[in-house]
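G., the chain you wanted modeled:
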Amino acid sequence: MRSSQGRAWLVWSVAAGCYAYGFFQRVAPSVIVDDLMTAFALDATLLGTLSAAYFYTYAALQIPLGVLIDRFGPRRLLLLGAILAALGGTLFALAGGLATALLARGLIGAGVGVAYIATLKLVGAWFPLHRFGLLAGLTLAAGTLGAIGAQLPLALAVGTFGWRPVLLVVGIAALALAGLVLAVVRDRPPGTEAPSGTTPPATHALGLAGMLARRETWMLVLITGLTGAPILAFAGLWGVPYLVQVHGLDRTAAASLTSVMLVSWAVGGPALGALADRLGRRSSLILVIAAANCLLWLPLALIPDLPLVLVVPLTAALGFGGGGMIVAFAVVRSVFGVTAAGRALGIVNSAVLLFGAGMQTAFGAMLDARWNGATAGGTRLYDAAAFGAGFVLCVVAAAIVVIAGLGLRAAERQHDAVIGR
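Predicted structure as tokens:
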């Protein structure tokens, strides 16, 4: 039994490592904003679009990947994804123009897009149901560790070697992950029957249509997508420029402080996931978290040049609250069950990336709309008011999550009334 548990954790570790790699690539542009703006002659809107290219392919493939994972198993898809990520990462490091860089970011997103739902599919096969929320949270924590690696450590490496050589090594490193997947990961424990992975595609399509017809699906899409989007906009792209241009920090110090949000996110995911496993009313927990997030974003929107001594604890609290998206993932698992987990998680996880991409681009557009014409070394400079306009978007996102949480709670109560609970 102990050996079986050890093997389960080893399988999870490799799969979660793929997710951590994807998260590293997701937020890496945040510490090379100036380099990218100079190399490709970008304004904030185009930079947001370049960063978001990762998210668009990632999000677009989530539902097809969910179907493929349910049909062919997570191992094959993780292996293929790691190879594709290596190709995209290498191409991005060598890109000579914006078009090539956009293509490369899209390939990276397509490659790493399989990691989260594949990891959760493996969790469902290798671990008992009552540990799903905790493992989902730990997976998010592993991802945020990858994101933390793309802050201060990446900033130091780029400062020493330049962004292209460093990202070239990062791209090639995905091949090592492919080798680990091949050697370690198996779709299910030895001696267990394969789930209905041979279900005809038509059955998958019908199941998918049924999921999309359910009101809970769309509530969960809004909750996960708009809980994660502000975190991805700040920690994934605009946090470092905000701290550099509004608070006067250098890039290394700004990357360190941005990591505070990511560390808190890493803690909040498992903590709130474990709490969700213990509560019967997950929708109530979602409401509390969403309301808190809305209130915490308000000071940054209203007073964007808040003293740094207040900004740091605010971003830490917001990072912890961002872990609330794990509660919604736990709801997905309990509502749709094991056999449809890949498809259901694909639908909901696509929202995280799609809204994250939109938020990064929209935040950049708000900055450009408030730009006063200042530049330095070919890079646009934005004042506190411009960043405040971007933070308003974060407040709006959190407010929509509150409304969606109310809708989810109403659906939950209606379901309980029908079954006579």
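The chain has one domain: 2-186+199-419.

Shout if anything looks off.
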